[in-house]
Sequence to fold (399 residues):
Amino acid sequence: MKKILIIEDDQIVANIYRNKFSVEGYQVEVANDGETGMGLLHSFRPDAVILDLMLPRTTGVDFMRKVRAEPDFQQLPVIVFSNTYLTNMVQEAWKAGATKCLSKANCTPKQVLEVLRGTLGNGSPPAKTPTAGETQHKAKNGSAPLPARPAPLKPAVSDTELQADHVGNFLRGLPATLTSLRAQLKLVVKADNDPDRVKEVQELYKRVHGLTSNAAIVGLVHIAHMSDALEALLKELYEKPKSMNASTLRTVASTIDFLAILFERGDKLSKHDLSATNILVVDDEAISRRAVTQALERAKLKCQSVEDPLAAFEMLSRTKYDLVFLDVDMPGMNGFELCSKLRTLPLHKMTPVVFVTSLNDFESRANSTMSGGNDFIAKPFLFLELAVKALIYILRSKL
Fold:
């Protein structure tokens, strides 16, 4: 019987995977952090490890480095769960010796099981331990020795029943999850100093991290996708406190509000290939324009960019875009004027428009009439903040 070690800090998620692997004939142990995982690695001696990179105490990357430093475990298969948007962490995981990297927001237990089988061998399930009766029958015919090995305990309920139960519990718990996220956001906003705010943002991150995992398991891919992006943004905010400002906190609040909509209607949202979206970026500054396009590319969103607002209007007249980012201060025609003009076009009466403006002018413009625009984001912006903002409007348009 193959042995699997799961290192996952969310107990509910860990139990779902433990049950899934157990009913498929694997022997499973679970650790809630990297340090406990290292202890089990030596005592349990697993054939493969399922590892969440986002762990307390010892990170998943640090865990892998320790594993690969020991000769006995240099070839041990390690399948890691990563955040789609934390590309640097994924690269570190590959360098540290990950066997496979899976996006946690896009994986179901069934898909992970298939990857595990392929990693361990020929893709077929492991041979299950024979029952005592089967072993005794073979022994009478000279094909097996006595005494018989006791059969492993089977779960009291089936994998399908447990999965259905988890889906039901998750859906029933969504209102409480939303209340918890909003209450924690209030603590972030009310924090009087940077250390307290960092602490509260980190707590908000932990709650969103759990949401991502559970939404993916029950198949609510758009909730998982949105939560995955917010999780990455929150991680960057508590690791880089100076990045926290009115714009980033407003984006976090907007994301939680949009999650509330997805909680109510996300099951009615059909699967949508985000790479098929088309976004227009209009900015006369080359560096700023490139920053916006790179942020969108990180979210795997297709975009076009143009520096001349007049040329942009011609493109808008001919082509339907799913979202438009407009710089505010541009020569010839500013962002407000371009927005007013594009609203006269039949193709773009309802197209979401996000203005990009300097941080110093963010508050005044965010509170002003937006000439038909939908939102603001402040320069300089975090790549992840802009990616999150784009995802909100792209997914909202699909509801």
Q: What stands out?
A: The chain has three domains: 3-125, 159-268, 274-398.
